[in-house]
């Protein structure tokens, strides 16, 4: 890609399809505010460009025997992940400039609010000497757990199955001519 990824909406559109906003509790280390994109291993160049533009780190993964059994043909993959506070803030600035357009926007809004609130109120830093310094108050832990639950809820696919018959009736198509629709 020749464009500066931070100055175009391309990455926002890509995130609508492939991005993942997560908050998770790290025992003894507070919470991690995380953004990631995982792709097949043959897409490493794209993930490397994203890493160059936005920071973060890359990790490689092979499908486990269980994954291969459940999903034959699973491929090795690379994951690009952002967890550092400064990089998360950089992503927030980007997505505020180039808003997401899909339902993922709702996940982003919760993630954004949680990140900014946590960074403002947490008492320790998970990167200070590799250990979490300080202890977050119980109210902050409960609030972060609520944010985590809300993001998980928003990730659930809530669409109702569509009946082909009803769709055909709505479009006033004759049901006896289904072969002609192909």
What does this protein look like?
The chain is of the alpha+beta class and 182 residues long. It has one domain (5-181): Homing endonucleases (Endonuclease I-creI), CATH 3.10.28.10. Helices cover 45% and strands 15% of the residues. The chain has helices at residues 10-18, 44-54, 65-70, 85-97, 104-121, 138-155, 164-170, and strands at 20-25, 31-40, 57-61, 77-82. It is globular, with a radius of gyration of 21 Å. Strands 1-2-4-3 form a 4-stranded antiparallel beta sheet. Strand 1 and strand 2 form a beta hairpin. The longest helix has 18 residues, at 104-121.
Can you tag this structure with a few keywords?
182 residues, Endonuclease I-creI, 4 strands, globular, 45% helix
- The arrangement of helices and strands along the chain is HEEHEHEHHHH
- The CATH architecture term is Roll
Strand content: 5-15%
CATH class: Alpha Beta
**Regions with little confidence, pLDDT below 50 for 5+ residues:** 127-133, 159-168, 178-182
In the CATH hierarchy, the third-tier topology is known as Endonuclease I-creI
The global form is globular
Count up the helices: 7
What about the largest sheet?
4 strands, antiparallel
Instruction: Write down the overall mean pLDDT.
Output: 81
The Rg value, from CA coordinates, equals: 21 Å
Secondary-structure blueprint of this entry?
Layout: H1 10-18, E1 20-25, E2 31-40, H2 44-54, E3 57-61, H3 65-70, E4 77-82, H4 85-97, H5 104-121, H6 138-155, H7 164-170
Helix pairs in contact: 4-5, 5-6
What's this, in brief?
By secondary structure, the protein is α+β, with helices and mostly antiparallel strands. Helix content is 45%, strand content 15%.
């Amino acid at each position: 890609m020749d464009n500066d990824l931070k100055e175009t909406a391309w990455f926002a559109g890509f995130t609508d399809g492939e991005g993942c906003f997560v908050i998770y509790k790290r025992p003894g280390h507070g919470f991690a505010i995380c953004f990631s994109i995982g792709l097949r291993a043959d897409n490493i160049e794209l993930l490397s460009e994203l890493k160059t533009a936005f920071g973060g780190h890359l990790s490689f993964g092979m499908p486990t025997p269980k994954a291969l059994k459940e999903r034959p043909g699973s491929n090795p993959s690379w994951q690009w992940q952002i967890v550092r506070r400064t990089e998360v803030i950089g992503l927030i600035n980007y997505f505020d400039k180039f808003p997401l357009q899909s339902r993922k926007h709702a996940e982003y809004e919760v993630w954004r609010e949680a990140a900014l609130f946590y960074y403002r109120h947490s008492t320790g830093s998970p990167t200070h000497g590799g250990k979490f310094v300080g202890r977050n108050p119980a109210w902050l832990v409960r609030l972060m757990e609520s944010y985590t639950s809300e993001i998980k809820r928003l990730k659930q696919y809530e669409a109702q199955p569509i009946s082909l018959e009803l769709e055909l009736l709505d479009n006033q198509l004759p049901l006896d001519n289904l072969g002609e629709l192909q």
